[in-house]
Amino acid sequence: MGTASQDAIKQLSVLIGQVDEPSKITFQNIHQGYPTETLVRFLKAREWSISKAHHMLMDCLNWRKQNHIDDILAKPIMPADLYRGIRDSQLIGMPGYTKDGHPVFAIGVGLSTYDKASVNYYVQSHIQMNEYRDRVILPAATKKYGRHVGTCVKVLDMSGLKLSALSQIKLLTIISTIDDLNYPEKTETYYIVNVPYVFSACWKVVKPLLQERTRRKVQVLQGCGRDELLKIMDYAALPHFCKREGSGSSRHSSSGSDDCFSFDHPFHQQLYGDIKQRALSREFIAPLKQGSCHVEVPDPNPEGIKIAKTIESEMHKLEDRNGLDRSLSGLKI
Asked: Which residue has better confidence, 222 or 169?
């Protein structure tokens, strides 16, 4: 790291040292004992501009305080059947770790339907996953591997991606905005597998819109990506949809606890159990309430809006080209 970068870190550290006590507490929940590495993430996200990184980090701290994000891991989604429905329709899981200790998150992009609960519940579940990753999974990996592990690897399964996914763009934009503005630079690499034509067509026009830093992180793999992924992780850590060529569906290619999307998978059982335990310890202070917690969503940045509109436009073109008889005319982002 050069002298200019070190100076930027020092200057940002001085600025953050001047925040009020509640902001210092929430910053501790973000950095988990690694404040310098956290400042670097925000600086990278703003191309090492100290003023922009400071503004971004202050916005993040305020968002966390206003929406009680520090407490979100003590707010279980209840009843359990509702949470199971969310897990069946927002396909994400953690099958294991890479050989160098990065958690592997699997995401079923093509087959997630987001139709079993309100938007608030899906947003709450997504933030809980982020917070559990940052406050439980990554610190445990850091301890196990004897060095700081601050990022994860994501494997995105595009099986089943259809033009009807357009209806989910609004929710996906909300989720990606939350990640971009409040959890920057947490993903080492995005591996995209089981790619259908719909994705290839959209990727061609979206790729040039991405920042170079983001483009470098994305790798589109052949087929289910098994051979390439085995270079960085053991077979046991592969997502179930990558374990054999032609496995087809990320939802039905395996059963039981091997399906990392399932509520019955050990990762989800540990996550939900941890949240319930935290909630029980809080009940002595305030009774536990059912219902989603409402989180204010920051305004998306212009780049994100442009990408979403480009995807929408490209999918409309594909729809027209294929003569598909789906009416999407009323959809606006």
From this structure: 222
Q: Residues in the chain, how many?
A: 333
Type of residue at 99: K
Q: Residues near 148 by Cβ (< 8 Å), separated by ≥ 6?
A: 34, 37, 142
pLDDT (tens digit per residue) in 28-76: 999 999 999 999 999 999 999 999 999 999 999 999 999 999 999 999 9
Amino acid at 107: I
3-state helix, strand and coil shares in percent for the chain, rounded to the nearest 5? 55, 10, 35
Q: What is the DSSP letter of 135?
A: I
Q: What is the DSSP string of 20-51?
A: -HHHHHHHHHHHTT-HHHHHHHHHHHTTT-HH
The pTM of the whole model exceeds 0.90: no
Amino acid at 38: T
Query: Could you tell me whether strands 103-108 and 92-97 are parallel, antiparallel, or unpaired per DSSP bridges?
Result: antiparallel
Q: What is the pLDDT of residues 215-260, one digit of tens each?
A: 999 999 999 999 999 999 999 999 999 997 654 545 544 555 689 9
Q: Strand 187-193 vs strand 218-220: parallel, antiparallel, or unpaired?
A: parallel
Burial bucket for residue 294 (CB in 10 Å: 0-12, 13-18, 19+) = exposed
CA 33, 153, 242, 159 torsion: positive or negative? positive
